[in-house]
Amino acid sequence: MLDVDREIQSVWKRVYTNPYSRAVGVGLPVSLLFVMLVIGTQIAFRIFYLYVTDNENAEINVFYKNVPYILYAISIVVYSKIYYYVAKILVDKENHRTESKYESSLIQKVYIFNFVNMYISNFVFAFWAKSFSKLAQNLATFLVAKQVLVNVVEWLKLSLLVKKKITKISKQYDDLIAQSTSPMEKQMLKMQKSIEEQNMMMPHQKETIMNSYLEGIVQLGFVCLFANCLTVAAIFCVITNMIEIRIKLS
Description:
This protein is mainly α. It is 86% helix and 0% strand. The chain is built from nine helices and no strands. The protein has helices at 6-15, 19-53, 58-64, 67-94, 99-128, 132-179, 183-201, 205-226, 233-249. Helix 2 (19-53) runs antiparallel to helix 4, helix 6 (132-179) packs antiparallel against helix 7 (183-201) and helix 6 (132-179) packs parallel to helix 9. It is globular, with a radius of gyration of 24 Å. The protein starts with 5 loop residues before the first helix and ends with a helix.
């Protein structure tokens, strides 16, 4: 009888674990928990909005009437970021055998959650409150607050974190180039410095592509589903995309 090492047996068990059972038994409850958290947040902001609008003080109403929209836009961005990292952990635990199945599972989780997270407030105003003026106000505030917040975070990430790493790598290679006496070695160090700098600019290409597609699909959904209430939404999306491209190119 062939003896198999116990460590190899444990590796085989991990490799051939059924991903579907883990996706249904662990991934689905966790995803539903986040969806319920989003719905609960929407109900809380709706109650806060009704409290503000029912207040008899007109000055308070004018000051606070946009606060629920802004807070909800911030919560949407925060929930999206948190769930993305949670979804990566869940998909890692599912232990898919191929990279395509791994990416498909991650995309399904992230896209379905973001559909609920991004659009639930608009559907509430459209079908529950039945107020297209409030829907337009919510859509405008959300697009402005979310896109501005995302672009600011992207700019800070690129200007502070990435440029700091690039500066550190450049200084190290500049010191090596200054210490080198061989022209051939200096040329090789300059080439390696350029490669390292470019590598720092795009550390996670697949994740960046998926997030870019996700952002584009979310904006397309806003334009296609709610463009009748806010016709300038498409123009605003084009402007923000141009600004985002400019930030990434800089």
